[in-house]
Design brief:
Blueprint: H1 2-9, H2 17-21, H3 26-32, H4 47-66
Length: 73
Amino acid sequence: EVQRRVAHQLRLGFWDWEARMGGRCTAVTWVKMPPTRMRGDYVHYNTAGGQEIAARLQADVEAAAAAGASWRW
């Protein structure tokens, strides 16, 4: 929540990684779902998970750009 507030104060875009994975504690699901998307340490993505989260990020950035959002990198 602090990151969200600071981004808003600085007029920066904020991408909610946790929400885009599926919410709190989703790493457990990503480790156990077939095909698995995270390594057993519940922190690091495997190849499939990296591709999945990258695709979600790219889709969200493209949607924001199409909607005319102003991004400050």
